[in-house]
Amino acid sequence: MGHREDLLEGAKRCLVEKGFVRTTARDIVKESGTNLASIGYHYGSKDALLAEAYVDLIANLGGTVGTFDEGAATGEPGSLERFEGAWKGVIRSFTEARPIWLLTFEVVTNADRLPTVREHLVKAQDEGRRGLIPMFMGGREEDIDDETLRTLGGLYQTLLNGLCLQWLFDPDSASTAEGLTEGLRRVMEAAAKSSG
Questions:
Q1: Three-state DSSP class for residue 173
Q2: H-helix or E-strand containing 85?
Q3: 8 touches 52 (CB < 8 A)
Q4: Is the dihedral of CA 184, 177, 168, 112 positive or negative?
Q5: Best CA proximity match to 87, nearest among 149, 145, 16, 167
Q6: Which member of 80, 133, 184, 189 has the lowest number of beta carbons within 10 Å of its beta carbon?
Q7: What's the pLDDT tens digit per position in 44-103?
Q8: What whole-number distance in Å separates Cα of residue 183 and Cα of residue 188?
Q9: Which tens digits make up the pLDDT trace of 95-138?
C-alpha cells in the first residue's frame, strides 16, 4: 500500500478505537506508519481524511457483517418477506458493528462544528440512500433515478437512522424486524381501505 491507503486504513482503526473528535493527526500517523505531511498532501486535512475513512467504514459495513448483502436477502424484491429479512440483517449489524454505528451518531452530533466534514458527508448521504434501495427492492444502484433516490431512499434512510438510534440507546426496547414489518403491513392495509 502507498501512504494514501495506509493513512485511510490507520484513520479507520483510530475512528473505531477513539471516535472522531478524540482522534488526532498524530494518532493517525502513528497508526498508519506515515508522517504528518502525508495527511495534507493526500487528503488536505485530518478532518477530510477522517470523513473519507468514516464513509469507507459505512460503505464496507455490509461486507464486514453481511448486513447489506443483497445476495443474502430472501423474498421477492419489494415483498414484506424481503423487508423483514433486510431489517434483520441491519439489526444484527447494530450488535456486531456497534462501534461503527456509535461513530455515526458522534459524527452527526458534531457536524456543525466540522463544516468540511459535514460537506463531505452530505455528498455521501445520497450514496447511502442509493445503497439501501436494492437491499429492499432489488435492482442495481446505478439504475436508480433521482426521484426514487429522494423518496424511497429517503424513507429507508429515515427508518435506518431511527432504528439505529433505538438499538444503540436501548436494545431491549428497540423495534424488531418483525415489528417493523407488521407496522408496514398495517399501513398498507389502512391505505388500501382508504383508497378502496
A1: coil
A2: helix 80-96
A3: yes
A4: negative
A5: 167
A6: 189
A7: 999 889 989 988 888 777 655 445 554 556 789 999 999 999 999 999 999 988 999 998
A8: 9
A9: 988 999 998 888 888 878 777 777 777 777 888 899 899 999 99
